[in-house]
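Fold these two proteins, one after the other.
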Amino acid sequence: MSCVPNFSASERGGIKARLIGVAKLTAVASLMVSLTGCYLTSPIWGENFDERGDTIRFQSWTTDKNKSVAIQCAKATHYGLYTGGGDPEWNVVTNITPTSRPSYDSTTAGVNLYSAGKTAVVPESCWHYDGVYNKWVTAIRAQQGSYAPRGFDAAGLECLGREVGKARSWFGFLNKGCVLTYSNSSNTIPYTRITADS
C-alpha cells in the first residue's frame, strides 16, 4: 500500500498552479518588505560642497505616495554621527510630497515607485566641524514614517544603475550589494554623510 496520493493530471495541474500562485504572493510580499523605506540617491555618501549654505538637490524614492518624505539632518564626524554625549539630534531640512504618478517601471511585481525631490539648504545647526577632515560634516536621511532610510555612495549608485539596467526593472538593484552598509556587516547605514569646505 502506497502513502503517496495518486492525483490525476488535472489535479496535479491545479496543485501546481496554486503552488505557483503562493510563490508569486511570497515574492511580492518579500519585495514589499525590501522596499519599505526611502532610498536617497542625492546627495550621495562623501559628496563635498563648497559651502554649508549651498543649495543641495535632495532626491529620494519611495513606494508610499501618501506620506510626505522628511529630509532630515544631524551633526556628524569622519567616523559617524556626532552625539555630543547623547543621542544624535535629527532636524528637518524640508518635507517633500511624493509624486502622485509612479516613476519608471511602475508595475514591477505590482509595486509602484514614487519620486520625492526638492532643493534646500541644510541648516547651520546640522553641521559639525571635523578637525581630522578639516571639513564641515553633516548626516542626511530621507525619513518616511517609521521606515528605515537608506543611501548610496558613488559605487552604490553605479551599482544601482547597472543592476536596474540588467534587470530592466527599477527593483533589480535589491539584494545586489548596492546599498551602503557598515564595514564587515550587512547592516544598512541609515544616513548619508556629506561634507563642506567652509
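Now the second one:
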Amino acid sequence: MTLSARQLFDRLVHVETLLWGRCDEELQHQTGLTLGRLEVLRVIASVDPCRVNEISTRLLITVGAASKLVDRLEASGLCQRQPNPRTGAPPCSPSPTLATPP
C-alpha cells in the first residue's frame, strides 16, 4: 500500500501524539511532572539567566503560556524568579532543592 505525503504525515502526527501521551503518563506516575513542565525545567537549567521570553522562544509557545508554566513550577517549588538587579526583570532559575532534569 502506498501512502500519499498527507496520509504519511497524518499517521506520523498520530503516532507522535500517542507516544507523547504515553510518555507523559509514565513521567507523571514516576515523578508527578508532565512532559510540558519537564521541558520548561530543561530550558531553565540550560540557560543562565533564563527569562520567560527564552522559554517561549525555545519551546515555540506564547510568552503568556510560558509565564503560566513558570508560575505553576514556582508555586510547586520547582523554580524561582529572581529580579535582575539592573533591569528588575525576573529571570527564572531552578529551585536550589531541584536536581537538574535529564
